[in-house]
Structure prediction request, 260 residues.
Amino acid sequence: MALLLAATAVAAAEQALRPGGVALVDIGAAGERLPEVRFDGRAVLVFVEDGRYVAAVGLSLDTNPGQLQGLTVDEKSVPLKVEAHAYREQRLTVKNREHVNPSASTLERIREERKEIDSALTAFREVSVQRPRVLLPVEGRRSSSFGLRRFFNGEPRSPHKGMDIAAVTGTPVRVPAAGIITATGDYFFNGNTVILDHGQGFVSLYCHLSSIDVELGDAVEVGDILGKVGATGRVTGAHLHFATYLNGTAVDPALLLEDR
Ligand SMILES: [Zn+2]
Prediction:
């Protein structure tokens, strides 16, 4: 069947067709029925702007550059072209060896925590949403660390899926976009953690907190304090690890910042 839809760039300056980026795709005039949009089988966020439906598709850091076929609108394929992007390398020394090569019992704990975290990060809550946007959750030096290819004590680990913001322990972390708290816990790698669901698969994550000031199920508004900056979990110093997800995929939070 002929493609009736083109992967038209919407507000091209704000999308990034690269691994870890966001594609904004105009999928037609906003009408009574919201089209069903999926990417690699996962439900995709759709917002309305200027009378148009726009899909915000999270592109995984491990995407191979080139033409992607995974996007469907009402089961029709919409091609997306993803460009290569060179993320930098980062080599870290972690003193606590358990944080580099965890023991068998710790691995079991990590697996259980992973399930809980993944379930919150991949949730899709069907509410109407606006264009995904965030404010900076803390004042502080913002590193451009998203996507770094990391080595701990010389051993390759998964790429860095968030933005690190340096701030002293105890600095309040403010809710950068309204939502519902869907996970809190003290996790092995992430330390004290909060996960915040903004609707339609737009989810944000806050790690290494010294304290958590919200509870599971809380509805929070922009500016509320969700916790305090700390150095819990696998860290080399006090900072906030701030990550944003679309369709279960980590995307660069800098792309969603209102004051960027
Ligand atoms: Zn981090």
